[in-house]
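Long-time lurker, first post. I've been practising inverse folding by hand and with some scripts of my own, and I keep getting stuck on stretches where the structure tokens seem ambiguous. Below is the full token string for one chain I'm working on. Before anyone asks, I'm not after the true native sequence, just a reasonable design that respects the backbone. If someone could post their per-position residues I'd love to compare against what I wrote down in my notebook.
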């Protein structure tokens, strides 16, 4: 594909061997990704989940406002695949893969738009000056600047998505203990809610 040659593979992946059973780890990963990355499950298999960004109003507001400074980089993927496979009795291989093709396509469109704008800006130079070759300067300069921006922003997004996946795996491997405020709120909620 053309985009693969220009900017590289649109898929970002991370993998790790973690302690626990495959079903248990798949459940933890589903909970983390749906809660922290605003993803929703679209396909469920015994050893794999396929998730995509949820499109609800609250989810879009959370991503737009970037509550908690998370960045929601995995929600820019068209889909995120979580795979688990048992290594031995107590360990499981966990892999996450995110397809960032839509985000890459948006970045590739910027240089094209800038070349067109540069050509429109350069058209008067072709007619109004003694040096018609000057008309080539705006599209070349704007196209080059757009390409530099696209390449650097694409690399940054890939890096941020990879860090997000590694953080998800870290949270599964080293779960955080709830803060005292969270424990207090959960305790109050349990005491105020009627028993099941």
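-- Answer (accepted) --
I ran through it position by position. Result:
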């Amino acid at each position: 594909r053309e985009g693969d040659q220009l900017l590289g593979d649109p898929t970002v992946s991370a993998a790790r061997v973690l302690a626990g059973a495959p079903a248990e780890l798949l459940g933890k990963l589903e909970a983390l990704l749906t809660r922290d990355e605003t993803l929703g499950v679209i396909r469920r298999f015994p050893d794999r989940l396929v998730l995509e960004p949820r499109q609800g109003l609250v989810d879009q507001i959370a991503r737009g406002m970037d509550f908690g400074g998370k960045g929601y980089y995995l929600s820019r993927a068209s889909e995120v695949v979580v795979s688990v496979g048992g290594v031995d009795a107590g360990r499981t291989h966990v892999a996450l893969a995110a397809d960032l093709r839509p985000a890459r396509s948006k970045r590739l469109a910027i240089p094209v738009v800038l070349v067109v704008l540069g050509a429109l800006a350069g058209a008067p130079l072709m007619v109004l000056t003694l040096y018609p070759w000057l008309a080539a300067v705006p599209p070349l300069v704007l196209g080059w600047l757009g390409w530099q921006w696209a390449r650097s922003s694409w690399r940054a997004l890939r890096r941020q998505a990879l860090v997000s996946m590694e953080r998800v795996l870290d949270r599964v491997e080293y779960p955080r203990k709830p803060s005292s405020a969270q424990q207090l709120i959960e305790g109050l909620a349990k005491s105020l809610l009627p028993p099941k």
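A couple of notes from the structure itself: The mean pLDDT is 85. The two ends are 55 Å apart (CA to CA). Happy to go over any region you disagree with.
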